[in-house]
Design a protein that fits this description.
Blueprint (H helix, E strand, L loop, with lengths): L8 H46 L8 E7 L7 E6 L12 E5 L5 E3 L4 E7 L5 E2 L9 E6 L5 E12 L5 E2 L4 E5 L3 E2 L4 E7 L9 E8 L2 E3 L6 E3 L4
Parallel strand pairs: 1-13, 6-11
Antiparallel strand pairs: 2-3, 2-15, 3-12, 4-10, 5-7, 5-9, 7-8, 8-10, 8-12, 12-13, 13-14
Length: about 220
């Protein structure tokens, strides 16, 4: 019996090259599919993050006529990381979060009487179980409204009674309670609950004039 003639070395090399090319194209196609899926997921996540951090819910129409001082030292600047109606923890409420390192001096945005405080907690975290673990100061203003300063550090309440003046240091910022990162949470309320219309929108005096604060913007406290 005659056997089939053996393939020439050149033909074997050509077949090997064709096989290698087909294998390469198969792997490339598979990788391209994975990359495409990854980019789609990344795009969806990016859109979600933009909506989460910059979209806001409706809030109260109450506006305070008083122009508040920024609640930190003169000449310093801090960024608003969650504004009115923010989706993380400000849904339907008029509150402002200032990004601050732990231990930053916190000053009274308006004068008044120390109404209540807590500073014995050293617990904080992302989940709702930490919500009641926040240290805070509440100042009652002369018109009966309340200035609320939240997430102070342990032993971070420096004034625990009596009258305080606008601009006076009252505490130290922290990361207690339900927090994603260290910050100062500030709000003004007519009534001490979380109903939408218990809150009041406030203007602040900044180095560029009196204004409502916007999420993502940084504001400097005037030196004069």
């Amino acid at each position: 019996m005659n056997s089939s003639p053996a393939a020439s070395p050149a033909r074997c090399t050509q077949l090997d090259q064709e096989y290698s090319f087909l294998l390469y194209m198969t792997k490339l196609k598979h990788f391209s599919g994975i990359l495409k899926a990854f980019l789609i997921v990344a795009f969806i996540l990016a859109i979600g993050l933009v909506v989460f951090f910059f979209y806001s819910t409706s809030i109260t129409k109450n506006v305070d006529k008083y122009e508040y001082e920024l609640p930190f030292n003169k000449g310093t600047k801090y960024r608003v990381v969650q504004g009115y109606g923010g989706l993380f923890s400000h849904r339907y409420i008029a509150a402002i979060d200032f990004e601050m390192p732990i231990g930053t001096p916190v000053c009274a945005a308006r004068g008044g009487i120390i109404y209540s405080y807590k500073d014995d907690s050293d617990e904080g975290g992302l989940f709702s179980e930490y919500k009641n673990k926040a240290n805070y100061i509440i100042i009652k203003h002369d018109d009966g409204s309340f200035g609320c300063y939240w997430h102070l550090k342990k032993n971070g309440v420096l004034i625990k009674g009596g009258h305080v003046s606008a601009g006076q240091q009252i505490g130290l910022s922290g990361a207690t309670g339900q927090v994603l990162r260290p910050h100062l949470h500030f709000s003004v309320k007519l009534v001490l609950n979380y109903q939408m219309n218990s809150f009041v929108k406030t203007k602040f005096r900044t180095s560029k004039g009196a204004t409502f604060l916007e999420n993502g913007e940084s504001y400097e406290k005037p030196t004069d």
